[in-house]
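Re-run with default settings, no changes from the original entry. Doing this only to confirm the output is reproducible before filing.
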Amino acid sequence: MYRNFIMCLILLGLALSGCQSGPYLFVGESENWNVELRSGENEYDFVEIVLKYKSSNLFPNDIISYVIEGENMNIDMEEDGLNEDGTLRVGIFDVTPEFRLNKAERLASAVHWENKTEEIILIKQ
């Protein structure tokens, strides 16, 4: 009886560990940008995107647009500019269930600013 109970606990633990979904972190960089995409414990709760301007040139103060694409997901947004330390931080809440970070190993992204574009591959960490 005791042995069956232990086996049930082990199987339950294995089953539950396979159901965990996050958090997820994807990171990439280019000549002028560091980009991170993070999810919460559940990838459908929220996603945070952080763009950090790393060039020695003056921070862009124009509109910055960015695209991040992966399986069953497409984030395409525009923001008014960076904060004083050259960072843009955006949170997206109530992500649709089709959004699949758990299956992705890499995401394609692009940042557009001041008539420039850099493409950045984000790698799952």
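The first helix runs from residue 2 to 19. DSSP finds one helix and eight strands in the chain.
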